[in-house]
Amino acid sequence: MPMPEYDGTGIEYYVIPSFQFTSHVTHPVRIAYRSLNSSSPRTVLIPTCYGGRINTTLTFTSPNQSLSSYRVIVVAMLGNGESSSPSNDPNFPTGLDYRDQINAQYSLLTEHLGIRELEAVIGFSMGGQQTYYWGCMHPNFMKYLVPTCGSAKTSLHNYAFLEGPKAALTNSVDYEDGAYRAKGRKPTRGLRAFGRTYCAWALSATWFRERKFETMGFHDVEDFIKTRWEDSFESWDAEDLLILARMWQAGDVGKTSEHGDYLKALESIKAKVLVMPSRTDTYFPPEDSETEVKHLKDAELAVIETVWGHMAGGGANDEDTKWMDGKIADLLGVLNADLGKLSLSH
Predict the structure, then answer these.
(1) Strands 118-124 and 26-36, sheet pairing
(2) CA 104 → CA 47, 60, 100, 108, 317, distances in Å?
(3) HSE (side-chain half, CA atoms, 13 Å) at 7
(4) Could you write out the DSSP letters of every residue in 115-150?
(5) CA-based end-to-end distance of the chain
(6) Could you tell me if 31 and 13 are in contact, meaning their C-beta atoms sit under 8 angstroms apart?
(7) Angle 109-112-115 from CA coordinates, rounded to 5°
(8) Helix, strand, or coil here: 73?
(9) Cα–Cα dist 167/193, whole Å
């Protein structure tokens, strides 16, 4: 089961000639994005996730899904290889902060696309973390936030998980202590080790026990690990993966405020928030979401009851995607006869 080729359909670019990073470095950046249904008066923003590209981040936008009548802007994170990143800019800064992502996206929306308000920001995983940052940094800019399988602050357990794949990559012989480009090499062994180390965390023990990989067309667990994870991450640039992983580890919306307390920062969010964690997510467990919801002014906690772990929130399983789509439709008040057929029971 070969991995699909990169899809650049519909991607556009916006250049910010003099972008100031939170590290106080000023450097030009290029933001990659795709706009769907441009004539619609209501706009939804969807940032990419870790390992996500623009055209793999179109969940909920198909005909008869909750966002099909909205103008949807899908934007690639800085560092993902589509927007400015270490892989396409040799002078790209060595560090990234979630605030950099939101500042760049805000510039794209307001200065380039002329958008003055959003109906919603919806994101999965690192995209979910960006939704929380959006709510804290621009509380009057959107009506709704939908973080799916994400958190307002990266937990210590999540931090420790990421150390494993990072170490597998940076300790590989072909990573060359970061000098692989200068030596004309690609750290293939390191990238494949990254994917193999990452794999088990993305899905639940029950998922593996029930051999769900067979429903995806894989012959056995080794075929799944090799094709879905090793082959997929081999297509990435090592420094792109590492700079985003470090940003993920440092995620904390408390940094958007003077007091530095992420729970107090959540209290500043004015949008209505639909928080959708997966019951079996090992990155962002629902217990973290329960804590966050207690500090949000207007929020609903809707746990995805699934064995698909973290991947449930990214559209990996049709049943979970249908359920999430129904919750989003309900939140947005989407009036559509076909959407009305969606069952909100799981």
Answers:
(1) unpaired
(2) 11, 24, 6, 6, 31
(3) 12
(4) ---EEEEEEETHHHHHHHHHHHH-TTSEEEEEEES-
(5) 30
(6) yes
(7) 40
(8) strand
(9) 9
Residue pair 260/254 in contact by the 8 Å Cβ criterion: yes
| DSSP H helical ranges for the chain | 98-107, 126-137, 156-170, 188-199, 205-209, 221-224, 231-234, 238-249, 262-266, 286-293, 318-332
Distance of alpha carbon 31 from alpha carbon 54, whole angstroms: 11
CB 129 within 8 A of CB 148: no
How many CB atoms neighbour CB 224 within 10 A? 22
Model confidence pLDDT, tens digit, residues 245-257: 999 999 999 999 9
CA 160/CA 162 separation, integer angstroms: 5
Helix (H, G, I), strand (E, B) or coil at 42: coil
User: Is the sign of the CA dihedral 330, 99, 181, 9 positive or negative?
Assistant: positive
Burial label, 282 (beta-carbon count in 10 A; 0-12, 13-18, 19+) = middle
Mean pLDDT of the chain: 95
Amino acid symbol at 318: D
Query: What is the spatial distance between Cα 119 and Cα 332, in angstroms, rounded to a whole number?
Result: 8
How do beta strands 43-47 and 71-75 pair? parallel
Could you tell me the sign of the dihedral formed by the alpha carbons of 344, 57, 28, 14, in that order? negative
Q: Which residue has the tokens 């928030």?
A: 273
Q: Are 245 and 165 in contact (CB under 8 A)?
A: yes
Q: Distance between CA 179 and CA 98 in Å, rounded? A: 26
CB 323 within 8 A of CB 278: no
Report the predicted TM-score, pTM, of the whole model to 2 decimal places: 0.95
> What gap in Å lies between CA 213 and CA 277, rounded to an integer?
22
Report pLDDT digits (tens) over 48-76.
Answer: 999 999 999 999 999 999 999 999 999 99
| Residue 12 C-beta-side C-alpha neighbours within 13 Å | 9
